[in-house]
Amino acid sequence: MERAHTINPLAKRETHDQRSMMAYKILTILSWLLVLILSFFYSFNAPAGKHKGNYARRSIWSQNKHNPTPFSLNPFITDVYWIVLLILQVGYVWHLFSKNTAYVNAAANVGSHFIVNNILQSAFLLCWVHSRFWIAELMLVLNFVNLTALYFRHSTTPRFVHIPVVSGPMAWTFVAILWDGAAMVGAHSLPARILANVAIWSILLYGVFFLVAFKDYTIGFELTILTASLAVHQLDLKFIAFQWIFAFVIMSVLFVATMLISIPGIFGKELTIRRDGDVVDRDRERQPLLEDE
Fold first, then answer.
1. Which of 203, 191, 230, 206 has the alpha carbon at shortest distance from 70?
2. What is the 3-state secondary structure of 3-42?
3. Upper half-sphere CA count for residue 272 (Cβ side, 13 Å)
4. 7 phi and psi, to 5 degrees?
């Protein structure tokens, strides 16, 4: 068991040897650059080569425009989300080179998951622009499993790690599964739109779970932004429809709930709802966002 823990790249450690740290630094930078380059290039350009049947090659947002579904996203809002996320990830990478041992260990402990996330996100982008939606969905589901495991294994990471590496990518991946899934099945028929009207509420349930169970207001803010992207684009696509109305309602509820959780935490007070006589573990209440030292 001890040897398995030693060779397991996903294991949580108090310290990391020089060889593993060098590997984390190199692979983290290379995989992050891969996501950055692919995201930037395919935002404006389609893949080179001829179209092959149903597998048309388009840029990221041309694909979004060519496949209008109940989960199509607004390009501007989504791009802003990703630009901010990528900038925050630069801060995370910088902590791998910090002279503060605690910062280095906190960053390195999630390094393997972050590298896997970058590889799977890159694979998703390549599949998306080549219209390989089924494979793209598989990449997203695998990444969702990776990020969910990361969240529960390292739920008390400092904010400089939690936002760019854990909650930010996980919120995106959850919404992207719906985005790509709708394009994958061609959600244009009435039954498909009704199903989409139901499926959109999963975003609210997902966000509320983390707000209530972990008081994680970061994922609340992130899902609010992504739901706003969905709402704006759906309103632009079809005015007489339920999808954009539901999206705005979900966005509003998530925003209010997130503010109720975040404001007390920011000012050093906790908003805890409990019945008289209930005993709530204090450490449980404070997860996952208090270890910022």
1. 230
2. HHHHHCCCCCCCCCCHHHHHHHHHHHHHHHHHHHHHHHHH
3. 17
4. -90, -10
Question: How many Å apart are CA 164 and CA 92, to the nearest integer?
Answer: 7
Q: At 55, is the secondary structure helix, strand, or coil?
A: strand
Rg over alpha carbons for the chain, rounded to the nearest Å, is 20
Q: Is 290 helix (H, G, I), strand (E, B) or coil?
A: coil
Q: Is 270 left (phi over 0), alpha (psi -120 to 50) or beta?
A: beta
Distances (CA, A) of 63 to 76, 79, 129, 203, 259: 15, 15, 7, 23, 34
Q: For residue 285, what pLDDT is reported? A: 45
pTM, 2 dp: 0.85
Element (H, E) at 78: helix 75-95
Judge whether 216 and 210 are in contact, CB under 8 Å: yes
- Tell me how crowded residue 52 is: count the other CB atoms within 10 A of its CB: 10
pLDDT tens for 82-117 read 999 999 999 999 989 888 888 888 889 999 999 999
Tell me if 185 sits within 8 A of 192, measured CB to CB.
yes
